[in-house]
From TrEMBL:
Domain of life of the native organism: Bacteria
Residue runs in coiled coils: none
Keywords: Transferase
Descriptive protein name: CoA transferase subunit A
Gene Ontology molecular function, alphabetical: CoA-transferase activity
Ion transport recorded as keyword: no
SMART domains found in the cross-reference section: CoA_trans (SM00882)
Record's keyword annotation contains Ribonucleoprotein: no
NCBIfam families with a match to the protein in the record: pcaI_scoA_fam
Amino acid sequence: MSRDKVVADAADAVADVGRGASLAVGGFGLCGIPGVLIHALLERGAGGLRVVSNNCGVDDWGLGLLLRAGLIARMTSSYVGENKEFARQYLQGELEVELVPQGTLAERLRAGGSGIPAFYTPAGAGTVIAEGGLAWRHGADGSVAVASPPRETRVFGGREHLLEEGITTDFALVRAAVGDRHGNLRFDSSARNFNPLAAMAGRITVAEVEELVEPGELAPDDVHLPGIFVQRVVPIGADDPRAEKRIERLTVRTAPAVHEGTG
């Protein structure tokens, strides 16, 4: 089988993502999100998706586009505060949500990708996460239709820990700054965030890359994720509007006043 993993376009890369598929999606806020692949999924229209990602984008960008179109049935996330549609769907019982502490979510993805079925962590011990009963999905009347289960606990070094399961998914979608034809990837600064972890967790991982290079052009020390974890590579153009790098919350500082006659 050829080691060239380059796929013609994003539509081909996600053509087998069917209804009800589970997805691990890289990115943090809007930083490092696989926007071109998300748009391809939107155009494909497969619903009932079960998505694992740090957050769900914003109302009009990123995973928020899939959510607004009614294509996501379940989210496993650590932060969801930037999306009003997310809150509406969750509170009205249209969306199932599993909230996970951010470090725990990262480790669950890494564990799944490393073949580790479960691990113990002190995060969440002594809270409702351990006790169970969190509303994963509401009923139409506001009741709890699906509740989180209680967690198995164990004491290590005199401290209680919770058992957390590793996460694996049918597919993973990630974005890299540079990738070669064998699937080796390099991420740009903070855009590395959840991307390598999501890529490890997917049984079929699709990477959109801003720059495609030939095998050997990436120095070994520059490879942040080896190609063994990547099955498909999609080159994207800088002028593609779907690849736009938006700023989630633009914060600027007012320039200080300049006083004449001083100095």
